[in-house]
Amino acid sequence: MMMPGGHGNENPNTNYMNGRGFWIFYLLVLGGVHIILLSVPVSLFSVAWVWTLTHVGHNAIQFWFLHWMKSHPWITFDQGSNRRLTHWEQIDHGVQYTPTRKFLTILPIMLYILASGYTRYDKIHFAINTLSLASVLIPKLPWFHKVRLFGINKY
Questions:
Q1: Staple 48 to which of 36, 61, 68, 119, CB 3.0 to 4.6 Å?
Q2: pTM for this predicted structure
């Protein structure tokens, strides 16, 4: 169905994520940032800390973009029905377990496994990485769809 405005999507905010090109771009940007962090000539940036920074940075950006920001930046014709939904709640019209949602859920888990392995399960890194993973996995659970804890980010 063609919508007024030149595109056939009622919510173009999330359709770009369904393409495999987006997934490859996402992985390339993540890998590029990790390589840049590895190449910083600072003694504090050991391999363990770079993996932790990559994981925590990725999860912080993903939490902000997918689970905190609401509405959409483009003009849509949904009569404001998505105005109070986060980006995650808008992906695939809220249908759970689609390929895009699985990709965006599995990626932090894979980063967590890599970060834990490269830090040799150090207690400090393990605690930081576990809290970071929990901050992005818990909001992705189906039980938290359209749920705002303690009224935070309700409006």
A1: 119
A2: 0.85
